[in-house]
Amino acid sequence: MIRPVDIKRVKIDDRFWSRETELVRKEVIPYQWDILNDRVPDAAPSFCMHNFKAAGNLNRKMRTLGRDYEAPKYTYRGFAVFPERREEAKDDEFYGFLFQDSDFSKWIEAVGYSLAAYPDPVLEETADKAIDIVCDAQLPNGYLDTYYIINGMDKSFSDLRDHHELYCMGHLIEGAVSYYQATGKDKLLNAARRFADYVAGIFGTEEGRINGYPGHEIAEMALFRLYEVTGEERYRNLAEYFIDQRGQEPLYFEKEHPDMKGKPDYYHQAHMPVRKQREAVGHAVRAVYLYSGMADMARITGDTELLTACEALWDSIADTKLYITGGIGGTHIGEAFSFPYDLPNDTAYSETCASIGLIFFARRMLQIKPDRKYSDIMELALYNCVLSGMALDGKSFFYVNPLEVLPEACAKDERKEHVKPVRQKWFGCACCPPNIARLLTSVGSYAYTESEDTLFTHLYMSSKITKSVSGRDVGIRVESGIPVNGEVSVFVEGAADTGFVLALRIPGWTSGKYEIKGAEGLETSVRDGYLYISGFDSDREIRLMFDISPRVVVSDPRVNEDNLRAAVMRGPFVYCAEEADNGKGLRSIRLKRPFEIRQSVTDEFGIDAVRLDISAVRVSATGGEAFASRLYKTFDRMSESETDLKLIPYFLWSNRGEGEMSVFFGY
Amino acid sequence: MIRPVDIKRVKIDDRFWSRETELVRKEVIPYQWDILNDRVPDAAPSFCMHNFKAAGNLNRKMRTLGRDYEAPKYTYRGFAVFPERREEAKDDEFYGFLFQDSDFSKWIEAVGYSLAAYPDPVLEETADKAIDIVCDAQLPNGYLDTYYIINGMDKSFSDLRDHHELYCMGHLIEGAVSYYQATGKDKLLNAARRFADYVAGIFGTEEGRINGYPGHEIAEMALFRLYEVTGEERYRNLAEYFIDQRGQEPLYFEKEHPDMKGKPDYYHQAHMPVRKQREAVGHAVRAVYLYSGMADMARITGDTELLTACEALWDSIADTKLYITGGIGGTHIGEAFSFPYDLPNDTAYSETCASIGLIFFARRMLQIKPDRKYSDIMELALYNCVLSGMALDGKSFFYVNPLEVLPEACAKDERKEHVKPVRQKWFGCACCPPNIARLLTSVGSYAYTESEDTLFTHLYMSSKITKSVSGRDVGIRVESGIPVNGEVSVFVEGAADTGFVLALRIPGWTSGKYEIKGAEGLETSVRDGYLYISGFDSDREIRLMFDISPRVVVSDPRVNEDNLRAAVMRGPFVYCAEEADNGKGLRSIRLKRPFEIRQSVTDEFGIDAVRLDISAVRVSATGGEAFASRLYKTFDRMSESETDLKLIPYFLWSNRGEGEMSVFFGY
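Structure tokens for the assembled complex are given below, as produced in the milestone run.
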């Protein structure tokens, strides 16, 4: 059984990654807490903690009256309700999106991971108090979604498709488990369990039960996690029920929403039973959250039919629906996967959260089978689309991560309304920033997984891990030069005669070009992109030198608009050109062949980064006469002026104001 | 004063154009009549004649009862109402779009032009009977829009922005004038006049009048036409009122629709007074219809301020918002102009009707000032975007004329839902087919305009024109080799000593390369792209040999996605590549430099057409290793296979089934 390494046993001390996690700890988590409490004057109000308090008050009133909670009669007020002015908010009303509770859960999840790495009593006290408020809102029967507690329980679970109660439950579980694992405190965990127990009691295919499933998936993987932490079969059963019931005839969402009858519900991945699904479709975040749950189930149950579906869905994404940046979601319509190979650069959706979900899915597939095909993409998504989601100062965020931006079009073309040329402070629907926070604070559990005797290294970052093998602690220390260079040292201590196996990913971006030193006399073999080293007889320093030289990358010709265009990568980083370095008109620049790329290390972004300069020509067709319109000229001759196209890592884009940006270039 | 030549004095006998007009006469007009009467089982029902009959019955009933018409109380039933099944339609109800009346008007307009060229007693009888039905529907006060006559007159003219009464009036006038000019019959003309009289009586800035204007322009140019035919000042005054009132504060449409308050109404060109407008914005058809009316007014009144606006709006289109095909409307959102230089090829709207409207605008600008800048674009739009709108058999139509098509994307990508890879039979909202019909049947009035002594030749087609100069008839006969070759002969008879001036457009696409023979001894001069020939002393044959050799054309670099790409033209024709000739993957084909183009005449489309073959390479980057995803490969070497890219005139595309198509190619 392969599992993520307990993040308490991973100590990351890496120039690159520690900066990111520190940013989350010092900037994002405190800022987000202020947001949850509506203390940021110029950001969209959240009302998240307000809602928990309002529900708690309602609860308390009932208890004081000495009778069971009697909810008001439910009235629908809209998918998101905000008061005209902050001060007009009523104490006993629900505000915000109807899934606003989940903002707390994502925050507490990130807090848990952060506390696991960096104990912080002040933060822990804040969190404990927040947990008290949240738990106060829970109904005696275990139900805990403030939207219905406040607005009327008579309609709870009456709109599974659009009202996110099961989604909120899923996030609550994830947050509660994280906090429990970090602190050992189980108050929130127990609240989450009671909510899950309540749900387990009313959902199912049996007569009289609700035979539906989540409109926005996440509960599936959360319940498997809860099962793995508590050992309680009922959570696993509930998760399995959700997964297997999804898409079964008669379709539950069609019963809820008869107007959608007969239209395949790709958006919610409810168009057919999940075991039969082979193509990744619909809302990209929902999809990869579902697939993550399916992968958990395949691993836990050993169900090969489900595994086949997971593998097919993975390949569908990896081979036909993945941006070079690790982004997914080719269309903003439904924030969804488009058809295979439809990966437009300028109208991409490529939501930060979707890449995060893809990383969830990848880690779970790696738990089933350590194969570079999963970790290569996990790394790609992390270093590019996910990191791009947050500004260098941790204070603004991208939801959408386009591969080409013309600021004027974002401002003036409604078709690109979703594409922002600069990161936004905080959104009313704040999914991405807290998702970045919970991923980055737990990045160690993506870098490493372990089985009984093996430590799998999927991502390279300077860190220390303690792994127990045959009752002995093996110490592994990694020193990684990535992203500046490709040199990685792994120090293994205390492994002699333990049967310890070190599995090191050989990144796909090396094209198999790497050197290894220090493994002399050990048993080594390469399988599915991992170098397995065993037979440790003494402490060792194993040195890997990966070829991280820059390379030009082209897309499958079926990616229509990337034809005759190429991108540049170096190691896991995709590069882009910005107007700040190259002026306007990036589309008129053509890379020169044979390609000549020069590298230089820079600290101008406040981090060690490698800039690339690639020889190019700026093309303009001139000299010919215009006819009819000044827009069109008969081609006469072409003026080509030599230039160095200056490239920076994609994740650093838009940290110097608004301007053109592009990943692909003509060649 | 320059005016279009009376089409009764133009006899077109041209291999290319006669086929088009015959198609309209033999296919489109009869088919459309069947549509108007809902006799085409597999096409969307029109209910156009049904509505006129229903209104007529209502009228008759009132007259029988011996009292004034009492309308039912108005109830809004939707922008378009269709019965579930054709046979469930009630005799006394209105169906279809609320501007359905205009379908008759466009049809009768085309019928008029067609009768002017080809007398056809059977068609004329059909038309007379239709006119009887239409006139029967008119209220005693002159009002004639069946939507309100049937649904309730209490709300007539209460929603000028969205309900198309004034639009229907405009089309009715255009149709009535055409029919009157062709046949001399004035029954419909009188009905149109009475409707216009009624409108003139209730619209205006005076107290108690409606101080609004059309939500969909056309009445403006129609009323000027009615004025020029009847000499009645009140029609001209009404048109001038509509034009000058548009966009005046307080904005009329904001009064009607307070929810739009404060949002600039670009869509209806009502964001500011028209004299101040400088950028073409909003719904493209509406825009060019308005500008056409403005040009009429500038010409008739000599108003230089208005002329300045017209010139600026023309330049805004010509120099920043025009597709190389003469299409306009860069975005389907609002079927509208996008921002300057935003001319996406694959998501283009480029509606056939908008190009037709652009031709209206161009002809009117030519009446003010004969300048090739107008006629070059008129020709471009006609030969490409407009002709593309109709299939070779005249039985199916494009509304949207994209410059690049990937059929799979049209089917699967909602962002390209408006783009169809094959022409459609008939639409419920059938604007384009009848618009093509009325343009093609009157093409002579775009080919030629005249002043007292001058005949202006804007388009070249074999035809005979009789022009009266100094009381004598001058005969002009044109023999045109276009589109097959660039040879044009103009025979002038009876011009000696009349003072006759022949103005021949030297097309911009010649880049000034042409030869002239037969003008020896005559006075010639070139002004604004026209060759003026005068001093005729005898009958003459003047021969022009225009350089029609194919050429490669590039876009202004500000047209973002055309950078590093080029198109091919020959004479006025834009060329495209189709999958039928070149297989899939048009995006991976790169034109070779220096460009080598071979021409060949073909009759495979049933017409004389010139095919072009251009040397190209099909590029695939191969050999490199895929990493992470099969989608992306490290560039190793490029495989270039030589190919001849086979091109056909753009207007011929999609006559051989569904497939990829592209106008621009990498080079």
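The mean pLDDT of chain A is 94. The radius of gyration of chain A is 26 Å. Further analysis is deferred to the final report.
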